[in-house]
Amino acid sequence: MINIDNNNKKDCCGCTACSSVCPKSCITMTEDNEGFFYPVVDGNSCINCGLCEKVCPVKKEISQDSIQQAFVSRINDKEVLMNSSSGGAFTALSRFAINNGYTVYGGAYNECFDVVHDSAKTNEEAVKFRGSKYVQSYMGNTFKNIKKQLDKGDKVLFSGTPCQCAGLVSYLRKPYDNLVTVDFVCHAVPSPKVWKLYRDYLTKKYKSNIKSVNFRSKVYGYHCSSIKIDMENGKSQKMGLNTDMFLKSFFFNVSCRPSCYDCHFKTVDRMCDITVFDCWNITRFVPNKKDDDKGYSAVITHSEKGAKFFKQASTCLEVFDADLDTLIKYDGKYAVKSIDYTPKREEYFRLVNEGLPIDEVTKRVIPIKAKNKLMGKTKGFLHATGLMSLAQKLKK
Ligand SMILES: Cc1cc2nc3c(=O)[nH]c(=O)nc-3n(C[C@H](O)[C@H](O)[C@H](O)COP(=O)(O)OP(=O)(O)OC[C@H]3O[C@@H](n4cnc5c(N)ncnc54)[C@H](O)[C@@H]3O)c2cc1C
Ligand code: SF4
Ligand code: SF4
Ligand code: SF4
Question: What are the Cα distances from residue 153, in Å, to 163, 173, 178?
Fold first, then answer.
C-alpha cells in the first residue's frame, strides 16, 4: 500500500489517484502542517490489493510514442484575450469542447477564493476556469466523477497540472476516446495554507472581503503581468512578483509543494493530449509580428486525438507553426526543469507554523526591497507613458 510520511513527501504530488482507486475507500487525503494534501491509509481496512501503488503516476515512467507538434496562438476574442493568462488558447479549447457536448473540468475559485477543481457544461459557467490560479487546487472527488461520466459515454475535457493529468490517466487504467486532457508548463504549486493566510491578511488590511482575484492581470501589459485583487469596498491592489508577498513566495520557491522541487513530470513527453503555456517571444516565431504586449499561448499537441482536437478548436484562434525545440528552449524552461530548492523554504514554513503573521514571515525570509516597492509605485506612470517597454528592454 501507498506510504507517504515526512521522509518521502517529495514522492507525492497529491493527485488523488490512489485515494480514488482504493476499493475499500480506506485512503483519506489529509492536510499536513504546510497546507498540502497527502494520502493517509487506514491499515485496519486495507486488503493489500496494491492498486494504490499501481496507479500512482510518480511511480510510472512518463512517455508517449506519438509525434508532437508545436504552435503559437491567440484567441480572436479581445475581451477573452485580456482576461486570459497568455493568449487564451485554453478558452478556445474549452469553447469547442462545450459547443460539442463535453463537460469541462478545471481549476476555479470557490466562494471563499480557495482554489478547487470544478466542472462546467456551458460557456458561461466555464469562465471560472479562465486565468491561472497559482495555488494547488483541491481535487475532492473529481477523478471518480470523471470516471462515472466517461463510463456512461459522456465526453470530458480535463485541464490541470501535468501531475493531475497524469494522475487521472493512470487512475482510469484504460484509454477513453471520450476524454481529452490539457495540461500546462508548470513552474510549481504554492501552498493553499499560505494562500489562505495571505487572503486573511488582505481582508484585515483593507477591512473588506475579497471581490475578485486575477493572478495574471494585463493592466500593465502581458510582459509585466501583476496580481490584481479587488476588495468588496472598492479598494484594489496591483502588484508584481517582486512586490507582492504571495507571488514572491511562489517565484522565490519558498512556498511550493515538496514534489515540485524534483518533479517527476518535467519532460516534453506528457500523459496528456495538449499542453498550453506562455509564449513570451512571439517575434522569434513570427518575425513579421509586432509584439503588442497582449500575450500569445504556446501549444504542444502530444497525441493524434490532441492534434485533431486543437485543429478543430482553432477556428477562433490565430495559429502559427513553431519549432518544438525552439519553443521549449525560449518559452518552456519549466517544461523540462524543476524549480531550485532553497533552504529558506524550511525557515518560511517554520515561521508560518509558529503563527507569525504572513507579512512578518515575508519580511524575515524574502524581504521586499525598497527599490522594488518604488518601481512598483511607478508602474502605472511608466505604462501610461509607454516607458514600461523601454524599462523592460533596459532591464533585459
Ligand atoms: C500553478 C501554475 C503554474 C504555471 N506555471 C507556468 C510556467 O512556469 N510557465 C508557463 O509558460 N506557464 C505556466 N502556467 C500556465 C500559464 O499560466 C497559462 O495558464 C497558460 O499560458 C495558458 O494560458 P491561456 O491564456 O491559454 O489560458 P488560461 O485562461 O490561463 O487557462 C487557465 C487554465 O489553467 C487551469 N488552471 C488554472 N489554475 C489552475 C490550478 N491552480 N490548478 C490546475 N489547473 C489550473 C484552468 O483550468 C484552465 O484550464 C502555469 C499555470 C498554473 C496554474
Ligand atoms: S492496498 Fe488496496 S486496499 Fe490497501 S490502501 Fe491500497 S488500494 Fe486501498
Ligand atoms: S502522487 Fe497521487 S497516487 Fe501517488 S501517493 Fe500521491 S496522491 Fe497518491
Ligand atoms: S511542478 Fe510537478 S509536481 Fe509540482 S504541481 Fe507541477 S507537475 Fe505537479
Answer: 25, 16, 7
Which ligand does the CA of 162 lie closest to?
Answer: 4
Residues of the chain with CATH 3.30.70.20: 9-59
DSSP per-residue string spanning 69-135: EEEEEEES-HHHHHHSSSS-HHHHHHHHHHHTTEEEEEEEE-TTS-EEEEEESSTTGGGGG-S---S
**The domain 9-59: what is its CATH number?**
3.30.70.20
- Which ligand has the minimum distance to the alpha carbon of residue 44? 2
pLDDT, one tens digit per residue, over 44-81 is: 999 999 999 999 999 998 877 778 999 999 999 999 99
The tens digit of pLDDT for each residue in 175-224 reads 999 999 999 999 999 999 999 999 999 999 999 999 999 999 999 999 98
- 2 and 27 in contact (C-beta within 8 Å)? yes
In the numeric block, which cell numbers belong to residue 230? 479587488
CA nearest ligand 1 atom 4, residue: 186
